[in-house]
Amino acid sequence: MSSANVVPVTDDPSARPPLDRDRLSDAGPGLAVEVVDVAASTNATVAARAREGAAEGLVVVAEHQTAGRGRLDRSWETPPRAALTFSVLLRPSVGPEQWPWLPLLTGYAVGTALRDAGFDAGVKWPNDVLIGDLKVAGILVERVDTPTGPAAVLGVGLNVSTTVEELPVPTATSLAVAAGEAPDRTTLLLALLRRLREEYDAWLGGSGDLRASYTRACVTVGRDVRVDLPGGGTLTGLATGLDAGGRLTVRPHPGTATGPDAPEAAVGAGDVVHVRVTEK
After folding, report:
1. Which CATH number fits domain 3-217: 3.10.20.310, 3.10.20.30, 3.30.930.10, 3.30.465.10?
2. Which pTM does this prediction carry?
3. Residue 9 — very low, low, confident or very high, per pLDDT cuts 50/70/90?
């Protein structure tokens, strides 16, 4: 990163520059970016706009998000101007069987944009973005029923200049903590949105192989995992890949409760509480 595209690492909100709204007004074809100073949840904001008839490509980004929502309705807050917290409205013209790919597509696009920016980022199935073994970005995709048909709200929370003291859990990191310096948030947001739009258009048009691309970028595949199942119990084994529906395939370890001859299990996002690498 050049010095023109980095900002000092600080926990003083007044020293963190705001997003450049003029530059974001020209985010690219099919995108309309709105910046708000404070929002409880950008996903909730965009969902409401979708129900009011907002067009595909609406992006709402908050300088300070006070009640962001993650998986399992977990709530979290980001320090002012320390993160990129934004939501994108899409209206995909695909069958319902293809919708589970949207969280994976979003995670893949974010991870790819970060790698393009020089960060060693990977995707943990289904849609967390990691640097090393630490989470730098989380994603929540929600389906919203609207008068003109279903819409998808893609929410992204990416820690940019967050300090170690500001991180919510020890398993989290930020771009500044990982690299020693924080990239300019406006430049990074533009790159993220353009990459997301490119991957989304390719997926809709059938011109890319998202399954193969995601598998290559996924740090979960090829590693031992333990899957905590929502009904209780666990599945331990080797993550071998993704099936045609985007589900993670796991080959159980011999001697586990599933039995030594158990076939591969396909784990869907709706059935998984958490996937973590097992201790060796």
Report:
1. 3.30.930.10
2. 0.88
3. low
